[in-house]
Structure formats: C-alpha cells, structure tokens
Design goal:
Number of helices: 14
Strand order of the largest sheet: 3-2-1-4-5
Helix content: 40-55%
Mean pLDDT: 90
Strand content: 5-15%
CATH architecture of the largest domain: 2-Layer Sandwich
Number of strands: 7
Order of helices and strands: HEEEHEHEHHHHHHHHEEHHH
Largest sheet: 5 strands, mixed
CATH topology of the largest domain: Nucleotidyltransferase, domain 5
CATH class of the largest domain: Alpha Beta
Shape: globular
Radius of gyration: 26 Å
Distance between the termini: 68 Å
Low-confidence stretches: 274-285
CATH superfamily of the largest domain: Ribonuclease H-like superfamily/Ribonuclease H
C-alpha cells in the first residue's frame, strides 16, 4: 500500500468536499470529475480531514464547503491554513431538489454540498476577521440582553395584571425609571409569597439592567481601544443614528465596500421587497422574511427620527404618503437612510442634510 501511495499523484486535479458539520462528527462527501468518490463519517476535525485527503488523493487541489450556523468560522480558518479553498454558505442559498427536501440526512446534505460546490452554483458568505467577529458577538450579546429585559418586563406586567395591580399609564414607557421600580416594590399582596415573587422578578430585572449597562460600556471601550470609533462616529453624523445603531451597523457589515450596489446592501439588511416575475407581469410581495434581524428594525426606528430632522427626507415621506401607508412609506425612508449611511461610510464624508438622493 505504501508503494502505491508513492506513485499516486493527483497534481492539477480538483476535489470537492461537502461537509455537513455537527458538534462531534462530520458527514463528508468527496467528488471529482463529476462523480461521488466517497461519503463517510469523521470526527469534527479539519486536521483529520486534511490527513485523509493527503493520504487518499495526494497532490490534489482541495475545495471544501459547509453551511453557516452554530459552528461559526473556526473550521473555515483551520481548513484554509491546511491548504483547502474553503467557503461557508448560507443554508438558504444551497439549491435543493425535490427528493432532498423530503429525505434529509447528514449524508444527503454533504453530497448536496459537494455537488453544488463542483457545479459552481453556490457562493460563500463574507467571513469577518477574528477581531471583527468578536466585536459582532459582543454587540449581539447586548441585543440578546435587551430582548431578555423586554421579556422580563412583560412577565412582570402579566403578573401584576393577574393580581389586579394596574400599572399607571404614565409609567407605560419603554424604559422603566428608578422611581417606577420603587413604586412596584411598594405594591402589596395578601400574603408574603406574592410579594416575594415580585421581588424576585425585580431583582432579576435590576441585575439584567446592570449587565446591559456594563456590556455597552465594554463595547465603547473596545471600539476606542481597537480603532473602530472613526467609522462609527462618522455613521453617527447621520440623523437618527445613535451609538447603538452605529456600532451594530459597523459590526454586522464591517466592510461597506463589499456591497457594490445599494440593492445588494438593502437586500442583506432586509429593506428590499420580494418580487415574483412571470412574463411581463411583476408582483411585489412586501419585505422578505429573510433579513438581518439586528439591522432592519434599528434602521426603521432611525428612519422615524431622521424623517423629522432632515427636510429632504420629510419631503420624500410626504410624497410617499400620497400613495401608500405610513408603514410602507417609512420602510422606503429607511432604505434612503441606508443609502446615505453607505455614502458617508464609503466616501468618508460627513452627512449633509437636505440633499435629495
């Protein structure tokens, strides 16, 4: 066997490896010359895969792909270091035939990935550098803590309503003040158990608010330390864009120049409508379900502020209202706002109000 390996030389031959990644095991499919050579299960190890390919197909060029998800990009980086030309793809972008939709197994998924990689029908997503990936994770943590706070507030409201405690209308605000928390602590129950549950809720809320504040402070500190602030502060010059929106935009997009056109950026964010085209007919279905959940809602919120501050956007908003609802109009304003952010960020120029674009 050793003598055979010494003779084998796959120089200038392309191999396509589809990997269905899981925590402990990978399902791997290897293709070359339009045929499937092997599908097998291996440990979740780029080094083990590299060793196998070099033993079985020495001298070949190795192309690999796996779907984005829980596993992140560590495997991508290791595979690249080992000489593979690896890409990471979005699961929604992989062509799937009828049989593959019905029968879904790890081996079927890996064969599908290898096939489409060889066909050239899939493109890899943008891979952030390790430092930008860690910034993105920290900014997303802020979002998760914030959403957890909202859920807890709703739990408290539901609990109080259950026991007949009505929250005064003037306290129905997005951010609960210290005075309001003090008011909640003063509420009485017939027995101490009801009061104890409310106290546990409020203690949890207090800790979460401290954690949120700490996370935001750390984000600001790291942006200063690692030189991200220049672009973030430039984005903040745009009306309606505060630090949280700016740093979220920066951490999610990272390199604005990778979007060659506004439509590509708007589609990524989720501000382009889904369209069905048949012959000469074209139907607009509204915003796509698939979108970046960290950006779209933030930009729509920012648009409501910007439309009051920039006369050009005010004029555009009023024109839109002549033929559509406020919600439809503000989405279009959000797209215009995104275009302004793109221009400011890409050209490194400050925002100018009252400019029609």
């Amino acid at each position: 066997m050793d003598s055979e390996n010494k003779i084998l030389d796959f120089k200038n031959q392309q191999f396509y490896v589809g990997i269905d990644v899981h925590k402990k095991n990978w399902s791997v499919t290897i293709r070359s010359g339009g045929i499937t050579l092997k599908t097998y299960s291996s440990n979740a190890s780029p080094k083990e895969l590299s060793k196998y390919m070099h033993e079985k197909y020495p001298g070949g060029s190795y192309n690999s792909v796996y779907e984005s998800g829980f596993s992140g990009y560590w495997a991508h980086r290791e595979l690249e270091e080992l000489g593979f030309k690896n890409i990471v793809v979005s699961p929604n972008e992989v062509p799937t035939n009828g049989k593959e939709k019905i029968f879904k197994t790890d081996s079927i998924d890996s064969r599908k990935l290898a096939r489409e990689l060889e066909n050239g029908s899939i493109k890899g997503i943008y891979i952030p550098s390790p430092i930008h990936q860690e910034l993105r994770s920290l900014v997303r943590l802020r979002y998760q803590i914030m959403k957890s706070n909202v859920r807890l507030k709703n739990q408290i409201k539901g609990y109080l309503n259950f026991y007949g405690h009505k929250i005064p209308e003037n306290y129905e605000t997005k951010h609960w003040s210290g005075v309001f928390i003090k008011h909640l602590r003063s509420l009485s129950f017939k027995y101490c158990m009801g009061k104890e549950q409310l106290e546990i809720y409020l203690s949890d809320l207090t800790e979460k608010r401290k954690l949120l504040s700490r996370t935001i402070k750390k984000i600001k500190a790291y942006c200063q330390e690692y030189g991200f602030l220049e672009d973030i502060q430039l984005i903040m010059k745009v009306p309606g864009i505060g630090f949280i929106t700016a740093v979220t935009l920066y951490s999610e997009l990272i390199d604005i120049s990778r979007f060659s056109k506004l439509e590509k950026l708007a589609s990524y964010v989720g501000l382009s409508p889904a369209v069905i085209s048949s012959g000469e007919k074209e139907n607009t279905l509204g915003l796509k379900m698939q979108h970046n959940k960290y950006l779209r809602s933030l930009l729509v919120e920012a648009a409501w502020i910007a439309v009051r501050k920039d006369p050009a956007l005010t004029a555009s908003f009023n024109e839109y209202l002549k033929r559509m609802s406020k919600q439809e109009a503000i989405v279009r304003i959000a797209k215009k706002l995104l275009n302004r952010i793109r221009t400011v960020w890409k050209e490194k120029t400050e925002y100018v109000c009252s400019v029609v674009k």
